[in-house]
Amino acid sequence: MPAIPSRFTRPRHLLPFPNQPPTLPPRRLAGGRQIQNRTKSTRIIRGGDLGGRLKRGEASERPADSSSSSSQLAMATQAALFAGFSQLAAQPARDRAGTGAPARVGVAAIGGARAGGVKAGGAGWAAAAAPRGVRCRASLIEPDGGRLVDLVAPEEGGRRAALRREAASLPHRLRLGRVDKEWLHVLSEGWANPLQGFMREHEFLQALHFNAIRGADGRMVNMSVPIVLSLGDAQRRAIQADGATRVALVDNRDRPIAVLSDIEIYKHNKEERIARTWGTTAPGLPYVEEAITNAGDWLIGGDLEVIEPIKYNDGLDHYRLSPAQLREEFTRRNADAVFAFQLRNPVHNGHALLMTDTRRRLLEMGYKNPVLLLHPLGGFTKADDVPLSWRMKQHEKVFSYDHSILPIVSINWLLTTL
């Protein structure tokens, strides 16, 4: 594998906190690697090792600071699914001074969730077991940035109609390809919270070199894959010559679907982007040829406002729940724990074992109504993968509605981070 050129190493002048060395999450979590938390670190359990470790009673890990004699509960992963509650921060919890007060626990997760880049496939991260006698309570995790992003123009007050008229009148239009439209979908519903649109240069460089971006409140948010929009040199010259600050985004039929405002245009350093994202510039990487190599030499970022919710009209749109809809569904079902499994294939026995065993252990931990969030991947998949429509038919037959939710994720880079 070719080495990353030295010019792509992390420059110190791009540190999110210039006078402080970075303490950011690693790009890729391997089985057993320690991930950094603000106070303590906790060990992640590789899904493939879960069965044997649970049988041996080794699934629970203690926080780095284990001097206290009070019982300690290690949370494994809090669902890093870009659903607004996506911050992957393993949070050790303990009862208070051994008094038996309930430990506060967020959302347990299994399957393909990980920090910043979400790992596809069944061998993922599984929730750790709790010590006996520990009672748990749950609440939804706060969205990254503190507020769930919704970039779709509201119908109330005529804003949606006004935006549609404005987009039709703008002189500069950028046509979105299939991948660009899927990224627009991701941004518009808050899956990439707290991004307000396609990345500006400082966000692009932070994601590229630090796998995170700094929000308006100063907090770091995992973001290991850049979400950007490219354009060609002729388009760049025309926009800059007119001094335009707003451009319309249109679909393949030239219909306006969004407006990008307060725009910023900067150079698309493709080789650096590939090297920093995949760790190599070797040819044959999935997604690269379609979305990077043949893309424009410039990137455009700005604030995004989408005219109406993105639909694909493929008979599966009713599965595509937004983060806000998922949160409402969790509340409606009175779920006191949500465990997530993300995959691109039909469910097999290994998947089923992880899911049923995790539900059983959550019940043993004291949760009354744990709900499975199954995340079948849409968007960019391998040529020999089972088509999404058939996977959804299989999932419908296999899973109980009472104990599971089946939203589709159309995040097109998920399969390329393996």
UniProtKB/TrEMBL annotation:
UniProtKB keywords: ATP-binding, Nucleotide-binding, Transferase
Residues in ATP-sulfurylase PUA-like domain copies: 141-308
Residue spans crossing the bilayer: none
Region described as Disordered: spans on this chain: 1-72
One Gene Ontology molecular-function label: adenylylsulfate kinase activity
Gene3D superfamilies in the record: HUPs (3.40.50.620), Sulfate adenylyltransferase (3.10.400.10)
Sulphate adenylyltransferase catalytic domain mapped to chain residues: 318-400
Pfam families found in the cross-reference section: ATP-sulfurylase, PUA_2
Bias-annotated ranges (Basic and acidic residues): 55-64
Pathway: Sulfur metabolism
GO BP term, example: sulfate assimilation
PANTHER family registered for this protein in UniProt: BIFUNCTIONAL 3'-PHOSPHOADENOSINE 5'-PHOSPHOSULFATE SYNTHASE, SULFATE ADENYLYLTRANSFERASE
Protein name: Sulfate adenylyltransferase
Source species: Panicum virgatum (Blackwell switchgrass)
